[in-house]
Write a structure and sequence with these properties.
The chain has about 210 residues and is an alpha/beta fold. It is built from five helices and ten strands; from the N terminus they run E-H-E-E-H-E-H-E-H-E-E-E-E-H-E. Strands 3-2-1-4-5-6-10-8 form an eight-stranded mixed β-sheet, sandwiched between helices. A two-stranded parallel sheet has the order 7-9. Helix 3 links the parallel strand 4 and strand 5. The protein is globular. The mean pLDDT is about 95.
Amino acid sequence: MSDIVVFGAAGTAGSRIAKEAFDRGHRVVAAVRRPEADASYLPAGIRVVTGDATSARSVRELAPEADALVLAIGGGSRTLWADAARTVLDALRGMPAAPRVIHVGGGATLLTPAGTRLLDEPDFPDEYRDSALGQAAALDLYRSSADGVTWTYLSPPPLEFHPGERTGRYRTGTDQPVTDPQGRSVLSYEDLAVAVVDEIENGRFRNMRFTAAY
C-alpha cells in the first residue's frame, strides 16, 4: 500500500487515477485547486484537500506523507506545466525520503520515426501548440533539473486519447508512439490510470519518459 497525492484530481485524468489507486488499495489524497470543485464522483474513502502543484507551500504540506505525487493538471496558461514541474522539483530537492513524481504529460512531445517531435511537424494543429510547448518545457525540466528527485513522465497517445473502457491491458514504449498494425496509437483515460498506478507499484520507468497504448 502506498500513500499517493494526486494533483488535478478534479480533472478527467486525475479523477480516474485517484479512483484506480484507491480501488487497488492505496491511500489517496485528491488535491484540487478550488475548494468548490465537485469531487462527489470520487470514492468516499479518498481524502479531498485544496492543493496546487504550482504552490511550493502546498507541495511542501502534502509531500512529507506521500510515497508518490501525481501531477495530472490541465488548463491554464502555456507555462502551467513547467511551473508545476519546477515548483515540485524545487520543493522536493533535499527532502528526506522525498516522494516520486509521476507527471502526466503530453503526447505531442513524442518523436516521429525521423527523431523530430510531433509538435514540430508542419501539420501540427495550431490550437494545441501552446499546451504542447508547455508540456515539452516540463519534460525538459525533468530531464535537466531533477537532481535527487525520482520522476517519471507519461505521454499518452498524441491523438486518440479519450474517456472509455478500462481493459487493464496496454503496451509501453519510450520516446515514440506505441502503434497497432494499422498504425494507430489509442488509449482510454481509464487505462492511462492503470498505467500510472502500475508505474507507482512497479517503478519500471524511473527518471525517464514512457508512453502507453493498445
